[in-house]
Design goal:
Layout (H helix, E strand, L loop, with lengths): L9 H5 L4 H8 L2 H18 L18 H11 L9 H7 L3 H20 L5 H9 L3 H16 L3 H13 L4 H28 L10 H21 L6 E2 L4 E2 H13 L8 H8 L6 H20 L3
Antiparallel strand pairs: 1-2
């Protein structure tokens, strides 16, 4: 049974004054057919499966009202009424309204992928294993592999992100994707921190920590698409660069009990002159080493 399109075909619902009529139109077979047709056109173009005479310099040039109706006729679900341009315009009088509904439709699958990254076994290992860093590597590899197993959707998301400043509907649709991902991972991180009885360093909030981690994942995902020659994912070793990045961030973000801000730790680590206490310890160790060499073996 098809899922509801109530939260996807929002502009179709708005096309009717009655809430009941709007929901009925939004969830009709024809609405499904037009959105599925748009998704297929997106996948073909972004994955390079488009006839040469239809390619132009403009991304998604094949995504027009005419092409969508033709695609719905040729490859769509069987409908009681033949799809027409008039039926399309009845749902989306303005094409950009269709685009924002299509963004929600295509990227809804991205939300479901995000929600499958952590299974029960992964959650248990992150909460209790002594080899926490290995569990991070495992989850990071699974995350990158799973999310990027749908290359058309991820490319579409990045393309729409570039257009978000120019279209409020697209911006709102993308915001929902990010909100879902943020809420999912924030809850997961809170659970892990609580289970291990650790806390973040002073001055670092859980929201900031979550934003950093999810942004790293998205940035490395973009690099994976745009620079395929760079090893972002190593399938042979079942490792992703994301795992190393996450472990590095955790190493700096978790308070080991000294209550210091991360900036204070970095200032000490990168100091040109070592702090006095460390300097005295180093000198004492050097003196002992020289004395041992002078005395020789006994």
């Amino acid at each position: 049974m098809d899922e509801s399109l109530d939260d996807v075909a929002i502009n179709v619902r708005k096309a009717r004054s009655s809430r009941w009529a709007g929901r009925r139109l939004a969830n009709s077979d024809a609405t499904w057919a037009y959105l599925e047709a748009g998704q297929r056109l997106v996948e073909r173009e972004l994955l390079g499966d488009v006839e040469a005479d239809k390619l132009t310099f403009r991304p998604l040039a094949t995504l027009t009202g005419h092409e969508i109706v033709e695609e719905a006729l040729a490859n769509g679900r069987r409908l009681a009424r033949k799809p027409t341009r008039a039926m399309f315009r009845d749902r989306w009088p303005i094409f950009r309204d269709y685009m924002s509904d299509l963004v929600r439709f295509v990227l809804r699958g991205r939300n479901s992928l995000t929600n499958r990254v952590l299974d029960d076994g992964s959650r248990d290992r992150l909460r209790g294993t002594a080899r926490f860093s290995a569990a991070v590597h495992e989850v990071a590899y699974h995350d990158m592999k799973l999310v990027h197993g749908d290359p058309a959707a991820i490319r579409f998301q990045y393309l729409m992100t570039g257009l978000a400043d120019y279209d409020e509907g697209i911006r709102e649709a993308l915001a929902r994707v990010y909100e879902n991902s943020f809420a999912y991972w924030r809850s997961a991180y809170q659970t892990i921190l609580d289970a291990r009885a650790v806390s973040l360093r002073p001055g670092l909030t859980l929201d900031e920590f979550t934003m950093m981690l999810t942004s790293m994942a998205e940035g490395l995902g973009l690099r994976h698409i745009g620079a395929a020659g760079q090893k972002v994912i190593d399938h042979h070793r079942r490792r992703a660069l994301l795992g190393k990045a996450v472990n590095l961030l955790i190493a700096g973000a978790i308070d080991p009990g000294d209550g210091r801000k991360v900036e204070d730790v970095v200032d000490e680590l990168m100091a040109v002159e070592p702090p006095p206490q460390r300097s005295r310890t180093s000198k004492l160790a050097a003196l002992r080493a020289r004395a041992a060499r002078r005395l020789g073996p006994r």
